[in-house]
Amino acid sequence: MDGKNKRIALVTGATGGLGTAMCKKLYDDGFHVIANYRNKQKADDWYAMMRTDGYDIDLFEGDVCDFDSMAKMIKEIESKFGGIDVLVNNAGITRDGRLAKMSKDDWHAVINTNLNSVFNCTRNVIEGMIERNFGRVINISSVNAQRGQFGQTNYSAAKAGMHGFTKTLAMEVAKYGITVNTISPGYIATDMVMAVPEKVRDQIVAQIPVGRLGGTNEVATLVSFLASDATSFITGANYSINGGQHVY
Ligand code: CAA
After folding, report:
1. What is the rounded distance in angstroms from the CA atom of residue 43 to the CA atom of residue 58?
2. Helix (H) or strand (E) holding 185
3. Residue 52 to residue 70: CA distance in whole angstroms
4. What pLDDT score does 187 carry?
């Protein structure tokens, strides 16, 4: 791809820790990066910080929980810049608590943001990818989908659902040059992980053979690898990146 015809990559939930690292890495690797956000104030600060760091990234507002909001946002992006080549379904939240205490709202918030979002975004880009015979869909799941985590029935269910989606969609679109893969990060140094009570977090880190939290740039490197043109034979896969915390 030359400078004018860069591949277009859309990252959802881009202003969080993982999303920021992904945007930077994809930009460094030559993509035209589009960042989706929901919180305007946070996005304005983020944009200023990215500009200071030399990153020219386009921001688009939209709620991944809302199908129509994603349809509108994606239509705007595509009419302004062209078809989306790479979709990174990264937006996600936690509402941790034992099921015996979990509210209906906390269940639905996590399923909507972490799983229904994957349908809302992917459904709106997939036909264009099929028409253009190229696409990369990358779903950011979690080690806690692969192994379960006390206090995360909502999160584990949503994140495990993402990989079911990956496997089936990979089969449906393989003949159109589209790959669909899951990345399952372990405990990465983000605000989400830092929100886990310190005592609990220390116990978790003690179970990681590498002996530390992962870096956001380590996950971003894998995202950019899967986004590249070179990975056209990798599809339906689930990449673990967890410092050895869960091996199977
Ligand atoms: N295994 C077994 N028992 C556990 C336990 C565990 N891991 N954690 C808590 N318990 C037990 C306690 O010992 C206690 O038992 P008793 O009542 O018999 O003493 C009981 O559960 C306490 O339950 P409470 O409902 O009162 O809950 P709490 O206020 O202590 O909080 C919790 C429970 C919300 C699960 C809290 O421990 C917690 O936040 N854990 C971390 C969850 C976690 O790892 N989240 C990941 C967030 S980051 C992320 O998700 C990113 C990613 O993809 C990796």
Report:
1. 11
2. strand 178-185
3. 29
4. 98
Its domain, for residue 154, covers 3-187+215-241
> For residue 5, what pLDDT is reported?
84
Q: Where are the alpha helices (DSSP H) in the chain?
A: 17-28, 40-52, 67-81, 104-111, 117-132, 143-147, 153-173, 191-194, 198-205, 216-227
Question: Does ligand 1 come within 6 angstroms of the Cβ of 96?
Answer: yes
> Would you please indicate which residues are annotated as catalytic (active-site) residues?
155
Q: Within 10 Å of residue 227's Cβ, how many Cβ atoms?
A: 26
Paired strand residues for 182: 139, 238
CA of 151 to the centre of ligand 1 (A): 5
Q: Does ligand 1 have an atom closer than 6 angstroms to the CB of 106?
A: no
Angle at 190 between CA 229 and CA 96, to 5 degrees: 110
Residue 71 is part of a domain; what is its CATH number?
A: 3.40.50.720
If one residue of 113, 115, 142, 150 were mutated to test the ligand 1 pocket, choosing by the most ligand atoms within 8 A of its CB, it would be 150
Domains in the chain, number = 1
| 199 within domain boundaries | no
Is 198 inside any structural domain? no
Whether 193 is in a domain gets the answer: no
Ligand 1, pocket-test mutation among 96, 191, 192, most atoms within 8 A of CB:
96
Query: Does 117 reside within a domain?
Result: yes
**239 C-alpha to ligand 1 centroid (Å):** 26
Q: Whose CA is nearest to atom 30 of ligand 1?
A: 97
How far apart are the CA of 100 and the centre of ligand 1, in A? 12
pLDDT digits 0-9 by tens, 89-126? 999 999 999 999 999 999 999 999 999 999 999 999 99
